[in-house]
Every structure is written in C-alpha cells, then in structure tokens.
Amino acid sequence: MIEKLQNLVNDDAALVNRGRWMSADMLLQIGDTGHLVEIRKGRIENVSPANVYVTPYDFKIRGTEEAWQEFWKPLPKPRHHDIIALIREGKMQMEGNIEMAMANFLTLKLMLEKPRKVGGAS
Asked: Model pTM?
C-alpha cells in the first residue's frame, strides 16, 4: 500500500490544504522495511526505500507488518483503527521529533489512513 500513498494523498486537495504548513521527513517502518516519506507543504513529494538504521528523518512511525495490514483494512478491528490505539496496544511506536509529529497529527493520521479508501491490505 505504501507505493500508493503519494498519489492518494496528493489527489486529495482538502488534505493537502490541511497540511499546507507541514514539511517533514517521516520514516515509516513496516516490519523490517523502511520507507522515507518526504512531505513538503502538505504534499508527499517522494516515497522511497530507506535503511531504518541510517536514513535521517524528523520522526518515525514503526509497527509490525500485521499491525499495518490491519490498520489499512477498510474496516480495521477494534484498537487497530488508529495510530494512537496501536501505540497503546504496543504494536506501533513513534520516535524522533514527537512534537513535530503531534503538531501535525491529524494531517498525518488522515494521510496514513488513505490506503483504506482503495481496499487497504485486504
């Protein structure tokens, strides 16, 4: 699903407008695989493979493959519908500049939920 994230987000004018003040490098870790998501003025400029140990980032959201797959389902099971719920369940973690991530959390949450609109991981 990560390969579709850029187009899904950038095609949503309201979401891009909501995030217009946000520019950050977010590392998404899905299991052992990393992806650098470069966000500039609310648009995802690039999504590229990243080494989770050496790639610089502003903040990272990491979780198991199973957690991401469930999160991206059109109707996730309870406590898998939200990044914070998954963090509370111990299935995801946030690292790095947490203040930056939380200042833009609704935008991030809406961006990361976009794959649900195309069927997610099912």
From this structure: 0.91
